[in-house]
Amino acid sequence: MIRELGDAARPAWLDIIESVCTDVLGPGYRQEHGPAAHPAEGRDDALARSAFSRVETARWDQTFTRTLDELFGLQSSFSYSSPAVLGTRQAAFEERLRRELTEFSPNGAFENTVPIEAVIAIRP
What does the alpha-carbon distance between residue 29 and residue 86 come to, in Å, rounded to a whole number? Predict the structure, then answer.
């Protein structure tokens, strides 16, 4: 199972993005426009039943530093905050997001440490 970022590890700039998305798109924006729900059966259970039941997992943390443009591009690529979903709200969304993120980090650097997991499933 992929580890989630704990509250202490969550960068404050993610809260800014969340706040802007909620204000512009509404509190249920992820559920309304996001990807389908995860299946009831977890990955590990599905693999245990499959021919690929021998599972090895490697985990590590990777720190990324993104620019304001990279963060905005990433946000635009998500199904729940894509230009198609934003529609006529896109310009206002972009202006507010860029303004608030620039106020938070005037040097334009946004760091985040992300848990990475590689799963290798092979036949026994």
Answer: 11
Instruction: Residue 117: name the closest of 61, 51, 37, 44 by CA.
Output: 61
Q: What is the pLDDT of residues 7-46, one digit of tens each?
A: 447 899 999 999 999 999 888 887 777 666 667 888 889 9
C-alpha distances in Å from residue 84, one per residue of 21, 39, 50, 78, 122: 14, 26, 38, 10, 40
Which residue's entry shows tokens 């860029």? 98
What's the rounded Cα separation, in Å, for the pair 110 and 94? 17
CB 75 within 8 A of CB 17: yes
Q: Are 109 and 67 in contact (CB under 8 A)?
A: yes
47-99 pLDDT, tens digit each:
999 999 999 999 999 999 999 999 999 999 998 899 999 999 999 999 999 99
What single DSSP character describes residue 42?
-
The token pair at 105 is 């980090």
Query: How confident is the model over 51-61, as pLDDT tens digits?
Result: 999 999 999 99
Spell out the alpha helix ranges (H) of the chain. Answer: 12-25, 29-33, 43-49, 68-77, 83-86, 90-104
